[in-house]
Protein backbone atom coordinates (compact mmCIF):
# COMPACT_ATOMS: atom_id res chain seq x y z
CA UNK A 1 0.00 0.00 0.00
CA UNK A 2 1.33 3.42 -0.98
CA UNK A 3 -0.11 4.97 2.20
CA UNK A 4 2.09 2.75 4.39
CA UNK A 5 5.09 2.59 2.05
CA UNK A 6 5.40 6.39 1.81
CA UNK A 7 4.28 7.31 5.33
CA UNK A 8 6.37 10.29 6.58
CA UNK A 9 9.32 9.24 8.73
CA UNK A 10 10.70 12.72 9.50
CA UNK A 11 9.19 16.11 10.37
CA UNK A 12 10.43 17.49 7.05
CA UNK A 13 8.26 14.95 5.19
CA UNK A 14 5.02 16.13 6.83
CA UNK A 15 3.13 18.26 4.30
CA UNK A 16 1.38 21.56 5.03
CA UNK A 17 2.03 21.77 8.79
CA UNK A 18 5.12 24.02 9.07
CA UNK A 19 3.58 26.05 11.92
CA UNK A 20 3.31 22.89 14.08
CA UNK A 21 6.62 21.32 13.07
CA UNK A 22 8.60 24.47 14.01
CA UNK A 23 6.99 24.37 17.49
CA UNK A 24 7.93 20.73 18.10
CA UNK A 25 11.47 21.22 16.81
CA UNK A 26 11.92 23.96 19.39
CA UNK A 27 10.57 21.61 22.08
CA UNK A 28 13.08 18.94 21.01
CA UNK A 29 15.90 21.49 21.00
CA UNK A 30 15.03 22.65 24.53
CA UNK A 31 14.20 19.09 25.65
CA UNK A 32 10.94 20.28 27.17
CA UNK A 33 7.55 18.73 26.38
CA UNK A 34 4.07 19.47 27.65
CA UNK A 35 2.18 16.51 29.11
CA UNK A 36 -0.81 16.54 26.71
CA UNK A 37 -1.13 17.39 23.02
CA UNK A 38 -4.29 17.44 20.91
CA UNK A 39 -4.18 17.28 17.10
CA UNK A 40 -7.32 18.49 15.33
CA UNK A 41 -7.93 18.02 11.63
CA UNK A 42 -9.55 16.09 8.80
CA UNK A 43 -8.74 12.46 8.07
CA UNK A 44 -5.58 11.71 6.12
CA UNK A 45 -3.66 14.96 6.72
CA UNK A 46 -0.97 13.55 9.02
CA UNK A 47 -2.20 13.43 12.63
CA UNK A 48 -1.04 9.86 13.31
CA UNK A 49 2.19 10.27 11.32
CA UNK A 50 3.01 13.46 13.25
CA UNK A 51 2.31 11.63 16.52
CA UNK A 52 4.73 8.84 15.61
CA UNK A 53 7.50 11.22 14.58
CA UNK A 54 7.03 13.23 17.78
CA UNK A 55 7.16 10.04 19.86
CA UNK A 56 10.33 8.93 18.08
CA UNK A 57 11.92 12.34 18.67
CA UNK A 58 11.11 12.22 22.39
CA UNK A 59 12.96 8.92 22.88
CA UNK A 60 15.53 9.01 20.05
CA UNK A 61 19.14 8.64 21.23
CA UNK A 62 20.72 9.97 18.02
CA UNK A 63 18.73 13.07 17.07
CA UNK A 64 19.88 14.74 13.86
CA UNK A 65 19.00 18.46 13.62
CA UNK A 66 15.94 17.87 15.83
CA UNK A 67 14.79 14.97 13.65
CA UNK A 68 14.55 11.29 14.72
CA UNK A 69 17.36 9.08 13.40
CA UNK A 70 15.09 6.10 12.51
CA UNK A 71 18.09 3.88 13.27
CA UNK A 72 18.15 3.48 17.06
CA UNK A 73 16.17 0.69 18.77
CA UNK A 74 13.44 3.08 19.94
CA UNK A 75 12.81 4.55 16.45
CA UNK A 76 12.88 1.15 14.74
CA UNK A 77 10.45 -0.36 17.26
CA UNK A 78 7.95 2.49 16.70
CA UNK A 79 8.27 2.12 12.91
CA UNK A 80 7.54 -1.61 13.25
CA UNK A 81 4.63 -1.08 15.72
CA UNK A 82 6.51 -3.05 18.38
CA UNK A 83 7.43 -0.31 20.86
CA UNK A 84 6.48 -0.98 24.49
CA UNK A 85 6.72 2.72 25.34
CA UNK A 86 4.51 3.95 22.49
CA UNK A 87 0.92 2.75 22.48
CA UNK A 88 -1.60 3.73 19.78
CA UNK A 89 -5.22 3.37 20.85
CA UNK A 90 -8.22 3.70 18.56
CA UNK A 91 -11.00 5.18 20.68
CA UNK A 92 -13.65 3.99 18.21
CA UNK A 93 -13.00 0.36 19.24
CA UNK A 94 -11.86 1.08 22.83
CA UNK A 95 -14.43 3.63 23.94
CA UNK A 96 -15.68 2.20 27.24
CA UNK A 97 -14.35 2.92 30.72
CA UNK A 98 -13.29 -0.72 31.35
CA UNK A 99 -11.12 -0.83 28.23
CA UNK A 100 -9.52 2.53 29.05
CA UNK A 101 -8.79 1.41 32.64
CA UNK A 102 -7.26 -1.80 31.30
CA UNK A 103 -5.01 0.16 28.89
CA UNK A 104 -3.76 2.47 31.63
CA UNK A 105 -3.32 -0.34 34.17
CA UNK A 106 0.47 -0.30 33.77
CA UNK A 107 0.90 3.47 33.49
CA UNK A 108 2.96 3.68 36.71
CA UNK A 109 5.54 1.20 35.42
CA UNK A 110 8.82 2.95 34.55
CA UNK A 111 9.49 2.95 30.77
CA UNK A 112 12.53 1.40 29.07
CA UNK A 113 13.14 4.69 27.25
CA UNK A 114 12.87 8.24 28.59
CA UNK A 115 9.11 8.61 28.02
CA UNK A 116 6.04 6.41 27.85
CA UNK A 117 3.71 7.87 25.21
CA UNK A 118 0.00 7.14 24.78
CA UNK A 119 -1.59 8.13 21.46
CA UNK A 120 -5.42 8.07 21.48
CA UNK A 121 -6.87 8.46 17.99
CA UNK A 122 -10.48 9.63 17.44
CA UNK A 123 -10.67 10.56 21.13
CA UNK A 124 -14.11 12.13 20.61
CA UNK A 125 -15.53 8.57 20.38
CA UNK A 126 -14.93 7.86 24.07
CA UNK A 127 -17.85 7.60 26.49
CA UNK A 128 -18.35 10.21 29.23
CA UNK A 129 -17.18 7.74 31.88
CA UNK A 130 -14.04 7.00 29.84
CA UNK A 131 -13.35 10.75 29.59
CA UNK A 132 -13.70 11.05 33.38
CA UNK A 133 -11.19 8.24 33.80
CA UNK A 134 -8.68 9.90 31.46
CA UNK A 135 -9.15 13.28 33.17
CA UNK A 136 -7.92 11.86 36.47
CA UNK A 137 -4.78 10.55 34.76
CA UNK A 138 -3.89 13.65 32.68
CA UNK A 139 -4.37 16.01 35.64
CA UNK A 140 -1.38 14.53 37.48
CA UNK A 141 0.42 12.05 35.23
CA UNK A 142 3.81 10.50 36.10
CA UNK A 143 6.72 12.67 34.87
CA UNK A 144 7.69 10.13 32.21
CA UNK A 145 4.17 9.84 30.69
CA UNK A 146 3.01 11.93 27.70
CA UNK A 147 -0.36 11.93 25.94
CA UNK A 148 -1.09 12.67 22.28
CA UNK A 149 -4.75 12.90 21.31
CA UNK A 150 -6.17 13.17 17.78
CA UNK A 151 -9.66 14.04 16.62
CA UNK A 152 -11.75 15.13 13.67
CA UNK A 153 -14.55 16.42 15.94
CA UNK A 154 -13.18 18.60 18.77
CA UNK A 155 -16.65 19.83 19.79
CA UNK A 156 -17.42 16.37 21.18
CA UNK A 157 -14.47 16.52 23.58
CA UNK A 158 -15.24 17.84 27.11
CA UNK A 159 -13.83 21.26 27.95
CA UNK A 160 -12.10 19.77 31.00
CA UNK A 161 -9.93 17.69 28.63
CA UNK A 162 -9.38 20.53 26.12
CA UNK A 163 -8.22 22.95 28.82
CA UNK A 164 -5.42 20.58 29.81
CA UNK A 165 -3.98 20.16 26.31
CA UNK A 166 -1.77 22.08 23.90
CA UNK A 167 -4.11 22.24 20.90
CA UNK A 168 -2.87 22.15 17.29
CA UNK A 169 -5.14 22.62 14.27
CA UNK A 170 -3.70 20.78 11.28
CA UNK A 171 -4.35 22.45 7.94
CA UNK A 172 -5.66 20.81 4.80
CA UNK A 173 -2.79 20.02 2.43
CA UNK A 174 -2.62 22.33 -0.58
CA UNK A 175 -3.25 20.88 -4.05
CA UNK A 176 0.23 21.96 -5.19
CA UNK A 177 1.90 20.00 -2.39
CA UNK A 178 -0.22 16.91 -3.08
CA UNK A 179 0.61 17.18 -6.80
CA UNK A 180 4.37 17.39 -6.12
CA UNK A 181 4.30 14.47 -3.69
CA UNK A 182 2.23 12.19 -5.97
CA UNK A 183 4.45 13.04 -8.97
CA UNK A 184 7.56 12.19 -6.92
CA UNK A 185 6.10 8.85 -5.78
CA UNK A 186 5.05 7.86 -9.31
CA UNK A 187 8.57 8.53 -10.59
CA UNK A 188 9.97 6.26 -7.87
CA UNK A 189 7.39 3.59 -8.76
CA UNK A 190 8.24 4.02 -12.47
CA UNK A 191 4.62 4.81 -13.42
CA UNK A 192 3.92 7.15 -16.32
CA UNK A 193 1.24 9.80 -15.91
CA UNK A 194 -0.43 12.84 -17.42
CA UNK A 195 0.10 16.03 -15.40
CA UNK A 196 -3.56 16.99 -15.67
CA UNK A 197 -4.53 13.59 -14.27
CA UNK A 198 -2.44 14.17 -11.11
CA UNK A 199 -3.82 17.71 -10.81
CA UNK A 200 -7.34 16.26 -10.88
CA UNK A 201 -6.42 13.72 -8.20
CA UNK A 202 -5.03 16.51 -6.01
CA UNK A 203 -8.10 18.68 -6.57
CA UNK A 204 -10.50 15.90 -5.54
CA UNK A 205 -8.52 14.58 -2.57
CA UNK A 206 -10.11 17.21 -0.27
CA UNK A 207 -6.74 18.23 1.15
CA UNK A 208 -5.98 14.66 2.28
CA UNK A 209 -2.76 12.92 1.27
CA UNK A 210 -4.28 9.56 2.19
CA UNK A 211 -7.20 10.09 -0.20
CA UNK A 212 -4.79 11.10 -2.96
CA UNK A 213 -2.53 8.06 -2.44
CA UNK A 214 -5.46 5.62 -2.31
CA UNK A 215 -6.87 7.00 -5.56
CA UNK A 216 -3.41 6.94 -7.19
CA UNK A 217 -2.87 3.31 -6.18
CA UNK A 218 -6.24 2.38 -7.65
CA UNK A 219 -5.22 3.99 -10.95
CA UNK A 220 -1.82 2.25 -10.99
CA UNK A 221 -3.52 -1.05 -11.88
CA UNK A 222 -4.46 0.11 -15.38
CA UNK A 223 -3.44 -2.17 -18.25
CA UNK A 224 -1.24 0.43 -19.99
CA UNK A 225 0.62 1.34 -16.77
CA UNK A 226 -0.19 5.01 -17.48
CA UNK A 227 -2.40 7.26 -15.36
CA UNK A 228 -4.53 9.28 -17.76
CA UNK A 229 -7.03 12.02 -17.02
CA UNK A 230 -9.82 9.90 -18.55
CA UNK A 231 -9.13 7.14 -16.01
CA UNK A 232 -9.34 9.64 -13.12
CA UNK A 233 -12.58 11.11 -14.49
CA UNK A 234 -14.14 7.63 -14.81
CA UNK A 235 -13.29 6.62 -11.24
CA UNK A 236 -14.45 9.93 -9.72
CA UNK A 237 -17.51 10.24 -11.95
CA UNK A 238 -16.38 13.56 -13.44
CA UNK A 239 -17.31 14.72 -16.94
CA UNK A 240 -14.93 16.56 -19.25
CA UNK A 241 -14.81 20.38 -19.09
CA UNK A 242 -16.53 20.39 -22.50
CA UNK A 243 -19.89 19.54 -20.89
CA UNK A 244 -19.67 22.40 -18.38
CA UNK A 245 -18.84 24.92 -21.10
CA UNK A 246 -21.60 23.66 -23.42
CA UNK A 247 -24.33 23.79 -20.80
CA UNK A 248 -23.47 27.44 -19.98
CA UNK A 249 -23.33 28.33 -23.69
CA UNK A 250 -26.82 26.89 -24.20
CA UNK A 251 -28.23 28.77 -21.17
CA UNK A 252 -26.40 32.11 -21.55
CA UNK A 253 -25.57 32.54 -25.24
CA UNK A 254 -27.95 30.36 -27.28
CA UNK A 255 -30.88 30.52 -24.81
CA UNK A 256 -32.30 27.41 -26.48
CA UNK A 257 -34.68 25.32 -24.35
CA UNK A 258 -34.90 22.41 -26.84
CA UNK A 259 -31.13 22.10 -27.10
CA UNK A 260 -30.85 22.13 -23.32
CA UNK A 261 -33.40 19.30 -22.90
CA UNK A 262 -31.64 17.31 -25.65
CA UNK A 263 -28.30 17.90 -23.91
CA UNK A 264 -29.70 16.75 -20.53
CA UNK A 265 -31.16 13.59 -22.12
CA UNK A 266 -27.73 12.76 -23.54
CA UNK A 267 -26.13 13.31 -20.14
CA UNK A 268 -28.40 10.62 -18.68
CA UNK A 269 -26.53 8.01 -20.72
CA UNK A 270 -23.24 8.93 -19.05
CA UNK A 271 -22.10 7.64 -15.67
CA UNK A 272 -21.08 10.67 -13.61
CA UNK A 273 -21.55 12.36 -10.24
CA UNK A 274 -24.36 14.95 -10.43
CA UNK A 275 -23.19 16.75 -7.30
CA UNK A 276 -19.60 17.06 -8.61
CA UNK A 277 -20.94 18.37 -11.91
CA UNK A 278 -22.90 21.13 -10.12
CA UNK A 279 -19.90 21.96 -7.94
CA UNK A 280 -17.61 22.22 -10.99
CA UNK A 281 -20.24 24.37 -12.71
CA UNK A 282 -20.30 26.73 -9.71
CA UNK A 283 -16.48 26.97 -9.82
CA UNK A 284 -16.65 27.83 -13.54
CA UNK A 285 -19.17 30.60 -12.82
CA UNK A 286 -16.82 31.87 -10.12
CA UNK A 287 -13.99 32.08 -12.67
CA UNK A 288 -16.23 33.97 -15.09
CA UNK A 289 -17.20 36.39 -12.29
CA UNK A 290 -13.50 37.09 -11.56
CA UNK A 291 -12.87 37.82 -15.24
CA UNK A 292 -15.70 40.38 -15.25
CA UNK A 293 -14.68 41.89 -11.90
CA UNK A 294 -10.99 42.31 -12.74
CA UNK A 295 -11.77 43.03 -16.42
CA UNK A 296 -8.82 40.90 -17.44
CA UNK A 297 -8.39 37.30 -18.53
CA UNK A 298 -6.64 35.65 -15.57
CA UNK A 299 -7.10 32.12 -16.97
CA UNK A 300 -4.86 32.26 -20.02
CA UNK A 301 -3.64 29.17 -21.86
CA UNK A 302 -6.36 26.91 -20.47
CA UNK A 303 -8.68 24.66 -22.43
CA UNK A 304 -11.77 26.42 -23.81
CA UNK A 305 -10.30 29.85 -23.02
CA UNK A 306 -12.16 31.49 -25.92
CA UNK A 307 -15.48 29.98 -24.84
CA UNK A 308 -15.02 31.20 -21.25
CA UNK A 309 -14.33 34.75 -22.49
CA UNK A 310 -17.34 34.60 -24.82
CA UNK A 311 -19.64 33.55 -21.97
CA UNK A 312 -18.23 36.33 -19.73
CA UNK A 313 -19.10 38.92 -22.38
CA UNK A 314 -22.71 37.73 -22.53
CA UNK A 315 -23.55 37.77 -18.83
CA UNK A 316 -23.64 40.41 -16.11
CA UNK A 317 -22.09 40.08 -12.67
CA UNK A 318 -25.49 40.23 -10.96
CA UNK A 319 -26.74 37.38 -13.16
CA UNK A 320 -23.71 35.23 -12.30
CA UNK A 321 -24.37 35.69 -8.58
CA UNK A 322 -27.99 34.54 -8.87
CA UNK A 323 -27.10 31.52 -11.03
CA UNK A 324 -24.40 30.69 -8.51
CA UNK A 325 -26.98 30.77 -5.67
CA UNK A 326 -29.26 28.45 -7.68
CA UNK A 327 -26.39 25.97 -8.00
CA UNK A 328 -25.53 26.10 -4.28
CA UNK A 329 -29.16 25.47 -3.37
CA UNK A 330 -29.31 22.69 -5.94
CA UNK A 331 -26.30 20.92 -4.42
CA UNK A 332 -28.09 20.91 -1.03
CA UNK A 333 -31.33 19.60 -2.57
CA UNK A 334 -29.44 16.86 -4.43
CA UNK A 335 -28.27 15.32 -1.15
CA UNK A 336 -31.87 14.85 0.03
CA UNK A 337 -33.55 13.80 -3.23
CA UNK A 338 -33.91 10.08 -4.02
CA UNK A 339 -34.09 10.61 -7.80
CA UNK A 340 -30.73 12.30 -8.34
CA UNK A 341 -31.03 12.70 -12.11
CA UNK A 342 -34.45 14.42 -11.93
CA UNK A 343 -33.20 16.78 -9.22
CA UNK A 344 -30.08 17.54 -11.29
CA UNK A 345 -32.22 18.36 -14.36
CA UNK A 346 -34.51 20.61 -12.32
CA UNK A 347 -31.51 22.64 -11.06
CA UNK A 348 -30.22 23.15 -14.62
CA UNK A 349 -33.71 24.03 -15.91
CA UNK A 350 -34.16 26.46 -13.02
CA UNK A 351 -30.97 28.22 -14.17
CA UNK A 352 -32.39 28.43 -17.70
CA UNK A 353 -35.80 29.72 -16.57
CA UNK A 354 -34.38 32.30 -14.17
CA UNK A 355 -31.73 33.58 -16.56
CA UNK A 356 -34.09 35.41 -19.01
CA UNK A 357 -36.00 36.90 -16.03
CA UNK A 358 -32.74 38.18 -14.58
CA UNK A 359 -31.70 39.41 -18.00
CA UNK A 360 -34.94 41.40 -18.53
CA UNK A 361 -34.98 42.69 -14.95
CA UNK A 362 -31.55 44.30 -15.17
TrEMBL record:
It comes from the Bacteria. GO terms for cellular component: DNA polymerase III complex. InterPro entries: AAA+_ATPase, ClpA/B, DNA_pol3_clamp-load_cplx_C, DNA_pol_III_gamma-3, DNA_pol_III_sug/sutau_N, DNA_Rep/Repair_Clamp_Loader, HLD_clamp_pol_III_gamma_tau, P-loop_NTPase. GO terms for molecular function: ATP binding; DNA binding; DNA-directed DNA polymerase activity; metal ion binding. The chain crosses the membrane at residues 232-252, 341-359. Its EC number is 2.7.7.7. DNA polymerase III contains a core (composed of alpha, epsilon and theta chains) that associates with a tau subunit. This core dimerizes to form the POLIII' complex. PolIII' associates with the gamma complex (composed of gamma, delta, delta', psi and chi chains) and with the beta chain to form the complete DNA polymerase III complex. Belongs to the DnaX/STICHEL family. This is DNA polymerase III subunit gamma/tau. It comes from Zinderia insecticola (strain CARI). The gene is dnaX.
Amino acid sequence: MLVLKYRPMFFKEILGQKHIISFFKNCIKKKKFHNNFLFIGNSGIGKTSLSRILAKSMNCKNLNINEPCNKCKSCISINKDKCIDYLEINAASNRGINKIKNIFKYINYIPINKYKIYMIDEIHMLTNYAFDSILKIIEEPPKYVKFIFATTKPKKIPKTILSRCFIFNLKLIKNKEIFKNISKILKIENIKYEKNAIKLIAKNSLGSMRNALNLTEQLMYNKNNIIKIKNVQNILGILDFYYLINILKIIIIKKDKNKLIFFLNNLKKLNFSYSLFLKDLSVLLQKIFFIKEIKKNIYKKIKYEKDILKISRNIKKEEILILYQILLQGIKELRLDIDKYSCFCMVILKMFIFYPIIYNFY
